[in-house]
Design a protein that fits this description.
The structure is a single chain. By secondary structure, the protein is α+β, with helices and mostly antiparallel strands. The chain has three domains: 2-40, no CATH class; 51-83 and 98-223 and 308-380, Nucleotidyltransferase, domain 5, CATH 3.30.420; 228-295, no CATH class. It is 39% helix and 21% strand. The protein is built from 13 helices and 14 strands. It has helices spanning 2-14, 19-40, 59-67, 169-176, 188-201, 213-222, 255-263, 269-288, 291-295, 297-307, 314-326, 329-332, 364-375; strands at residues 107-115, 125-134, 139-144, 150-153, 165-168, 207-212, 226-230, 234-238, 241-246, 249-253, 309-310, 333-335, 343-350, 355-362. The strands form five sheets. Strands 11-6-1-2-3-12 form a six-stranded mixed beta sheet. Helix 7 runs antiparallel to helix 8 (269-288). The longest helix has 22 residues, at 19-40.
């Protein structure tokens, strides 16, 4: 960019035109540069609001005591845990910051959600992932967060809840949807979900991407479908009975088929669905990085620009794309599995819906420790 501007200025100075026109050209040039820099560093959506504070000690615990069906073990209370940071050396001020790949930050945490809706006015986040992007070591680690984890959501449902609303993690996205009107942050559903994750588990989020079901189908179709190997049969529901949708084995899936595989959890539960979503995500990346897939990138960009919620700047997107070209996709993109042994199945009374619902009760201290290790790059 600097070389180009220098050459252009040199050309203007040497051009046989009168001084007034030269001044006009120079002013126009700098205005274009300022506009480009402004656009280059402007988020493509509403930025996440700053996360401040943590839930009062014991809010979730007290609620569980009131709402749990008898004989279900109560998970430990929410407690404030410091966000993990590396201890700086005494001479850290004199030490230059380490050089990162593609000029990115040392780490970036991206909240990725798949929304069970045809739009973004309403919807539950049926797929929730946080990607740790390491620009120092050239590695991307993707952590799935079970959508059924029982959490305290920092929003009030008028006439029903006070201070906090307890519910499933994916309900945080739903309550933050603009159509619900409960959350007044301009970052809407992704923002409330990010705050909920931060306040319950001290998991930092920098940016977000939300994709709804309609756009997911279009993206898969845009790259010509995906090739997958499904280790288990996929079942759907028909009149409360399981019905075979896709047999185990190798398949080429179009957008609609991939959507159904990503959504079905009959007989396999949420953890089985998470594994199938990971299979689809890996297949999508593999298809995208083929010569044929690369030809479809312009079409994907067009879909993203108009239909995907995100707060990345073009500058940040360019750094992410640059990083992906410099790492080993097979070995340097790691998909973690959330340990089932630190979650317990249970049923709690949901005041908003007025009925009992299935939840996963987090053993809070091990969950927070696990996420701390994730943020420090020590797990998995």
């Amino acid at each position: 960019m600097k070389h180009f501007l220098y050459k252009l200025m040199e050309f203007i100075n040497k051009a046989p035109i009168i001084s007034g026109i030269k001044v006009g050209l120079i002013i126009s040039l700098f205005m274009c540069v300022i506009f480009f820099i402004s656009w280059w560093n402007t988020p493509l959506g509403t930025e996440l609001e700053k996360i401040t504070g943590t839930p009062e000690k014991g809010i979730l615990q007290a609620s569980l005591e009131e709402t749990l069906i008898p004989d279900i073990k109560i998970s430990p209370e929410i407690r404030k845990t410091e966000v993990p940071t590396e201890t700086p050396s005494l001479n850290s001020s004199a030490t230059p910051p380490p050089e990162t790949i593609c000029g990115g930050p040392e780490t970036m945490y991206v909240l990725v959600t798949g929304v069970d809706s045809e739009n973004y006015i309403y919807g539950l986040s049926d797929a929730i992932r946080v990607a740790r992007v390491d620009f120092l070591n050239g590695k991307i680690t993707v952590l799935p967060l079970p959508r059924d984890m029982y959490v305290s959501i920092p929003v009030v449902i008028p006439g029903i809840t006070y201070a906090y609303t307890n519910g499933k993690l994916n309900q945080a996205y739903f309550y933050g949807s603009p159509g619900m009107g409960y959350y007044d942050g301009e970052d809407h559903a992704p923002g409330l979900l990010a705050i909920t994750i931060g306040q319950n588990f001290n998991l930092r989020v920098d940016q977000y991407i939300s994709v709804n079901t309609r756009i997911f189908r279009r993206m898969v179709d845009q790259i010509g479908g995906v090739d997958v190997y499904l280790p288990d049969d996929i079942y759907g529901h028909y009149f409360q009975e399981p019905v075979l949708y896709q047999e185990a084995g190798s398949h080429h899936l179009d957008g609609k088929q991939a959507e159904m595989v990503a959504r079905h959890r009959t007989l396999i539960g949420d953890f089985g669905r998470v594994r199938n979503q990971t299979i689809l995500f890996k297949a999508f990346i593999k298809a995208l990085l083929t010569p044929e897939g690369i030809k479809n990138v312009p079409g994907l960009i067009e879909i993203y620009q108009n239909n995907v919620l995100m707060d990345f700047t073009p500058n940040e997107i360019s750094k992410l794309l640059c990083l992906i070209t410099k790492i080993d996709i097979k070995n340097d993109i790691v998909f973690a599995e959330f340990p089932q042994n630190i979650l317990e199945e249970g049923r709690v009374y949901d005041k908003v819906q007025g009925s009992y619902m299935y939840v996963l009760l987090p053993d809070h201290e091990p969950v927070v420790e696990l996420i701390a290790d994730f943020q420090l790059g020590r797990w998995p």
